[in-house]
C-alpha cells in the first residue's frame, strides 16, 4: 500500500528542485529541472553532496502550475491537524509557497495578477488532506476499493480538488519522462490528493458512551465557481455548486484526539494503534446538493434580482441524462428534493426541472397535493410502472419551502421529512466494522449494511434552504442510528436525550452551512439561527438581511476575480496554453467615458456635500451656492441613473473565461448607449476604447523588448 510521504525536504539548487523524504531514505528523490520543468526520479544517496541554496521542510506538494511566463511548484509549507477519524489524522492547508522555475527579471502585470489570484484563492479556500485516509471518497466507496493501490489512484476524480495541478506528476507517473518512457510508480508517494469543502470531527460522548462524529462536505471540481457566474449544468453533465456531504459516527474509534503516534508508531501511515481489541463500528449517511440540472443562468445587471435566462429542456436533455446517469451509478435511487418557489421569478426554473424529469422517467406519473395555504404543497413525479430504465430510479419531490415556513414557522419544514418517511426507511445507511482481524485484509471495512439511495436537494443557490433540509435529514438519520445501536429507545430523539450533544450537532451543521455558502456566495449562510438554536428569530431575520445586502455587493462588484481564481486553479483557463497575443487580459476594455461615470457620480456627491456643509458669510449671496448644489445634484442624479439603467456595464465580470450571456448583454448595452443616449452616445462612438487598446499593447511589448 503506497501512501503519500508525511515529511518531505525540498532542496533548491540553481538547476533544479529536489524533493526527498527523510523517513524513507531508500525512496527515490523527485527532481524537477530548472527552468525546463522536466521531471525525473533519481537515487537520493547520489544527491547528498549536491550544492544547494537552501533546504526547507514541507507538508506536501499541492501541484505544478504553468502561467504565462513561467512554471511554479506549489508546496504546502504549513498544515494544521484538525482531528483523527478512524485513527487517521486529517490536516487543513494553512500556508503555501510558490517555487518559480525561472528567476524573473522583468515585471509583467498579467503574471503578477495570476499569482495574486492563486495565492488569495489558496489562502481563503478550505482545503483538507490526509496521508493515510482517502478523504475524497465516502466510507461506503472506501469499503469497495483495493487498498493496495496508491492513495491518489483511489481518489474520486470529482473531489480530487488539485487534480489539474497534479497533472504533470500524474502524467510522469503514467507515461514517464525524458529518458524514462515508462510508468514511474516511484513518484506515487509525492502525489497528494486534496479536497475543498468542510471537515469537522468531534470526539465526544452521547449519554456517557464515547463516540466520534464527523461531518465532511466535498465540493466538486467540475463547474465550480461563484454564485451568479456558475449555474445549471454543462454539456458533460456537471452541476454547479455540487457538494457531497457525509455524516459519520464511529464507536470505539482509534485515538480520536490530536495526540502523537501510539501503538504501531508507523510514521509513514500515520494511523494510530488498536482499540483494545474492540470492533470499531462506522456508520455513515451521505447526501448531495447541486444546481437545477438544466441550462439556465442569472444575469447580473445591478438589480437586486438578476434576470433569469433559460434554454429549452430539449437542448439540455443530453447533459441532464449524463448527470443523472452518473448519480444513479454512484448512489442508486435519487430522491430529487426541489425547494424553489412555485410563484414569481423562480417558477420558470421549477417548471424546467419538472419537464426534464418527465422526459427522463418512462411513463411518468405526477401527483400534486394541496391544502388551504397553497395549491401545490407537494408535487411528485415517479414512474407509474415497474422500472424499465435506470432513469426510473429518479423520484422527484417538490416542496415550497418559503410558502410553508412563512412567518417564522420553520417547524413546518418537518412536513417534508414526514412525506419522505417511507423512502428514508428504505434508504438505509452504511454500517460497517473495522475489527482487529480486518487488518489482515489491509484494514478494509467489513460492510454489514449499505446505503441504497441518496437525497439530492436543491434550491436556487443550493445554500440556505438546502442547508436547513439537509440538517433535518441528517438529524432524522442520526436518531435512527442511535436507536439501532441501542443508545436510545425507539421513538425517542437525541435532542431530548443529551442537550450537550444536541448543541454540538446544531453548531456543526451551521458551520457546514457557512463554509459552503462562503465558497459559493462569498458570505455565511442564511437561516443559521434555525440550525444553531432550533427556532427562527427576529435577530436571525435581521442577520439574514445583512447577509443579503453583502451578497448583493460581492456578487456584483467582487465575484469576477473570485471566478477567475476558480478557473485558474482548476485549469478551466490555462495561461500557458492561451494565444501568444492574449496579453493584458485584465485590462478594462470599456470605453473611457463609460469607466468615468462612477467617478463623476462620486465627485458630484462630494461637491454636493461641500456645498451643503460649507459655512456661508452673513452678507454673501444665496443663489450662487444654491445653483452650485442644484447643478451637482443633477449631475449626480444623471450619473447614478445611467449606472443603474446600464448595470451590465458596471458588473465586475470574469475576465479569463467570459460568460456567453455576459458578453452578449455587454454588447447589447453598449449598442444601446451608442445609439440612444443623447449625451454619451456621440462621444462613445468617436472614442472607442478598442482603438487605443492595440496601441497600448504594442507600447507594452516594445517596453518589454527594451528591458
From TrEMBL:
SAC domain span: 118-522
Top-rank lineage group of the source organism: Eukaryota
Any matching Pfam family: Syja_N
Signal peptide: none
Spans through the membrane: 596-615, 627-651
Keywords: Membrane, Transmembrane, Transmembrane helix
InterPro entries: SAC_dom
Name of the featured protein: SacI homology domain-containing protein
Organism, scientific name: Neurospora intermedia
